[in-house]
Design a protein that fits this description.
Belongs to the IspD/TarI cytidylyltransferase family. IspD subfamily. It catalyses: 2-C-methyl-D-erythritol 4-phosphate + CTP + H(+) = 4-CDP-2-C-methyl-D-erythritol + diphosphate. It holds the Pfam family IspD. This protein has one domain: Spore Coat Polysaccharide Biosynthesis Protein SpsA, Chain A. Helices cover about 30% and strands about 25% of the residues. Strands 5-4-1-6-10-7-11 form a seven-stranded mixed β-sheet, sandwiched between helices. A two-stranded antiparallel sheet has the order 2-3. A two-stranded antiparallel ribbon has the order 8-9. The chain is globular.
């Protein structure tokens, strides 16, 4: 039988108010079919039976989230996020530590609406193999090149052991909070939760996830996400 964590709390950092996609609102509120990107993301997290709560870290000037039907979901908790992704995750972890100190945190990007319940389950189940925590990831398939500062190819990188980091990323909440806080205080370059754990000497596991778990960062990604979700 799997060693099931006592409770699992999903964290969605969504404090960004700027948009990189030329729109008049943050990208997580752009429409993807009949509802916003963030709404799709939250619906999937709400639907997973092992996720006890979903914490969304919002910008204090966010005027969009309250308009979503998902904002009234009984599993949802709102906290005020920070200027960077890591700050928002830490704010949510502070809440988790105060209310569920033994919980595991499942941190997921707001702009990854195509994640499947099956992939989330596989990540949660990996706790037996990776008790230190793990992330969803996809093996690199393309040929990788390293360049110099002028844009010239220096060499071809061996892709054999390279992975694209995805989300969710799944760690014991109290340990992630401690390492993330220390890494930020040391001004370490933290790009995701796994990098904070790595900085502290922890080696997170890699759980192979679906390649259609894309992050919407470009206008073309919206059409691709609609296609992926229709096929799912």
């Amino acid at each position: 039988m799997r060693n099931n964590p006592r409770s699992i709390i999903a964290i969605v950092p969504a404090a960004g108010i700027g948009s990189r996609m030329g729109a008049d609102k943050p990208k997580q509120y752009l429409m993807l079919g009949q509802q916003s990107i963030l709404a799709h993301t939250l619906d999937t997290l709400f639907a997973h039976p092992e996720i006890e709560q979903v914490i969304v870290a919002l910008h204090p000037q966010d005027h969009y989230f309250s308009q979503l039907p998902q904002s009234q979901h009984p599993k949802l908790i709102q906290v005020v996020g920070g200027g960077e992704r890591a700050d928002s995750v830490l704010a949510a972890l502070d809440y988790v530590y105060s209310h569920h100190p033994d919980a595991w945190a499942l941190v997921h990007d707001a702009a990854r609406p195509c994640v499947t319940l099956t992939d989330i389950s596989r990540l949660i189940e990996s706790v037996d193999i990776y008790p230190q925590g793990a992330i969803l990831a996809a093996p690199v398939r393309d040929t990788m090149k390293r360049s110099d500062a002028s844009g010239h190819i220096v060499n071809t990188v061996d892709r054999t052991l390279l992975w694209h980091a995805l989300t969710p990323q799944f760690f014991p909440a109290s340990i992630l909070r401690r390492h993330l806080s220390a890494a930020l205080a040391a001004q370490a370059p933290i790009t995701d939760e796994a990098s904070a754990m790595e900085w502290a000497g922890v080696m997170p596991g890699l759980v192979s996830g679906r390649v259609d778990n894309i992050k919407v960062t470009h206008p073309d990604d919206l059409q691709l996400a609609v296609l992926f979700m229709s096929q799912q």
